[in-house]
Design brief:
4 helices, mainly alpha, about 70 residues
């Protein structure tokens, strides 16, 4: 998989949550690891990437009015 897809997904997830600090808490990872993954210096593990994908996908689904 293209590394940029993982980077872009993590960046979008951070935007949704309000920033990297909130994403770090949501993913339960260290700030150093998250920074390395978001910069593309290192590749996020699959479980982290998939959790970020879930968040991004959930945000894109329109909510039904009650």
């Amino acid at each position: 998989m293209d590394k940029s897809v993982r980077v872009l997904t993590l960046r979008r997830a951070a935007q949704i949550l309000g920033g990297p600090a909130q994403l770090r808490t949501y993913l339960n990872v260290s700030a150093i690891c998250l920074a390395a993954w978001m910069s593309g210096f290192d590749t996020a593990p699959t479980y982290v990437f998939l959790k970020a994908v879930d968040l991004v996908m959930e945000e894109g689904i329109p909510k039904k009015p009650l």
